[in-house]
Design goal:
Blueprint lengths: L1 H7 L6 H17 L10 H6 L2 H6 L1 H9 L11 H14 L12 H7 L2 E2 L14 E2 L1 H9 L5 H10 L3 H9 L3 H14 L5 H14 L3 H9 L1 E4 L9 E4 H20 L2 H15 L7 H30 L6 H39 L4 H9 L2 H4 L8 H20 L8 H12 L13 E5 L6 H11 L9 E2 L2 E2 L24 E5 L19
Parallel strand pairs: 1-2
Antiparallel strand pairs: 3-4, 5-8, 6-7
Helix pairs in contact: 2-6, 2-7, 2-8, 6-7, 6-9, 6-22, 9-12, 11-12, 11-14, 12-15, 14-15, 14-16, 15-17, 16-17, 16-18, 17-20, 18-21
Length: about 525
């Protein structure tokens, strides 16, 4: 309805009118305004002019998306305004918007901060809203789906992105989302996708990564596997991501989830200092699991290539298909293992004196590195990590370390010896840089997810560019390393890497993963 209105009245709908409409909706959201009284608009309806249509546009949009019988009289207008705004932002129609331009999205992406904007020098047709009030509204319930969607769009606004990075209470934004990742990984896959995307967007900024590693969480009550005390927010984020990867490896086997989780870990790795002992042990455990699976797949792939061709043609075709699947799965594991090795290698090479717990954990579980020495893609990283560990093994033997030494004494020894390692200049560090980039067809994921949340979705069939909104499948995870297909496919992740030439990540349907 709104899209049709924009097309029919594009000669009179000005940017100022759209700005005013969006501003009113956002003000309702941040100020929690009450529901407006029902007005008698019979006179305006009788006029039948374009002007009356524009005046009634917000109210008509409200009545269309949120019929009276759906919401109760106690529904806050802030929620209804937020759903209306999200509907406008994500609306996509090739017929109505052939260039893909969405004026509401353009407005959201260019909003200025009212608290710091100089109204005299503000660019024409630019909307200014208090970023602090928007942020405070979101962190009241940051893991709630509607707030996640709003945060997803606002983070694409450079002004809001910079404001979020300047906040010192970033834990209020991140902790509830981590709880969702920890407790509802299977039950809420679409919400998990969106949380991972939002966190990935945040970790693109080195300042955010440094802040989360320096912010200490004194106690995490909802983490059941271990009683976590005095762990950094960045360390807790790494623990939850590693747990998600291990769970995904064993049950879901979704390549997209692996890629996103490892991308966030890689972005965080450039600021890893004083890593918590539990984080170090989980990182080494992830390396062990990936090594085991990779070596097993490599052995199976080698055995299959040695088998002779069967006489039966149908059986031969099936074996070829299985070989192709195993080859792709092997390459995927190789790529994931490369990222983990790169994270560990960078941490040991440039920040070993700040991470004795990681060295300690690796010394206890380093036997799998030797099996990678002859691997074409992984040998360089595995060899360098092994060489660094050999230095510490030698120093421990020279010092005649006894078995009865307590862990604290060994850690102190490792920390003191790590200072002898001369780290290369920081500018030479080959760091993995992962960047989120929204694809033009991202509406295929966002639209059905949004309408699943909308109060109008239960009674209204939405026409999305000539196609009905597809139903989300929340439990159709593939048993192979394949992505979700159709409407539940999340937007794209573009990978930018500053390092030596490396093998590209495996392509999966619906995602273009590029390496620069």
């Amino acid at each position: 309805m709104i899209g049709i209105g924009l097309k029919q009245y594009d000669h009179i709908v000005s940017v100022d009118m759209l700005n005013s409409f969006v501003k009113n909706l956002l003000n309702n959201v941040v100020h929690h305004n009450d529901r407006p009284h029902v007005i008698n608009n019979g006179l305006l309806n009788s006029i039948g002019t374009a002007a009356s249509y524009l005046l009634l546009l917000p109210w008509n949009a409200y009545r269309y998306f949120f019929p009276a019988e759906i919401g109760s009289s106690t529904d806050p207008i802030s929620d209804l305004s937020l759903f209306t705004l999200l509907s406008m932002i994500q609306y996509h129609s090739i017929d109505l918007m052939p260039t893909g331009a969405n004026p509401f999205r353009d407005i959201i992406h260019t909003i200025q901060d009212l608290d710091f904007a100089d109204m005299g020098t503000l660019a024409p047709n630019t909307l200014a809203i208090s970023m602090s009030k928007l942020y405070d509204t979101i962190i009241r319930s940051p893991s709630m789906e509607k707030n996640l969607l709003l945060l997803y769009y606002l983070l694409q606004n450079p002004n809001f992105f910079r404001y979020v990075q300047s906040r010192t209470d970033i834990d209020s934004l991140i902790m509830p989302s981590l709880h969702i990742l920890y407790s509802s990984f299977e039950e809420k896959p679409q919400q998990v996708y969106l949380i991972l995307i939002v966190v990935l967007m945040l970790t693109q900024d080195p300042l955010f990564n440094a802040n989360v590693h320096s912010l200490i969480i004194h106690q995490v009550n909802w983490y059941k596997e271990r009683h976590l005390l005095d762990i950094s927010l960045g360390g807790l984020l790494m623990v939850i991501l590693i747990k998600s990867i291990v769970f995904n490896l064993s049950k879901l086997r979704d390549v997209y989830l692996h890629t996103n989780c490892l991308a966030i870990l890689a972005n965080l790795s450039s600021s890893i200092t004083n890593i918590h002992p539990y984080v170090a042990s989980r990182m080494v455990k992830l390396l062990e699991i990936l090594c085991k699976r990779y070596l097993k797949l490599k052995q199976n792939n080698s055995n299959m290539s040695k088998e002779g061709s069967p006489i039966d043609q149908q059986l031969e075709q099936q074996l070829q298909e299985n070989a192709l699947i195993q080859s792709e799965e092997l390459q995927t594991h190789s790529d994931f293992l490369f990222i983990v090795l790169q994270i560990i290698n960078s941490t040991l090479t440039y920040r070993s004196n700040f991470n004795p717990h990681l060295i300690y954990s690796l010394l206890h579980q380093s036997e799998y590195l030797k099996s990678l020495f002859n691997d074409e893609n992984l040998s360089e990283l595995a060899t360098n990590i092994s060489n660094i560990l050999s230095f510490f093994v030698y120093e421990l033997s020279v010092a005649n370390v006894q078995e009865d030494w307590p862990a604290e004494r060994i850690l102190f020894f490792l920390e003191s010896k790590s200072k002898q390692i001369v780290a290369p200049p920081n500018e030479q560090e080959g760091a993995l840089r992962f960047k989120y980039e929204e694809e033009p067809n991202s509406h295929e994921f966002i639209t059905p997810y949004h309408w699943q949340l909308s109060p109008a979705a239960s009674t209204t069939d939405i026409d999305n560019g000539g196609q009905k909104t597809p139903t989300l499948a929340t439990d159709s995870m593939s048993n192979e390393f394949n992505n979700h297909s159709g409407s539940s496919t999340p937007p794209n992740v573009e990978i930018q890497i500053i390092t030596a030439p490396t093998p590209p990540l495996a392509q999966d349907p619906g995602h273009n993963i590029n390496m620069v």
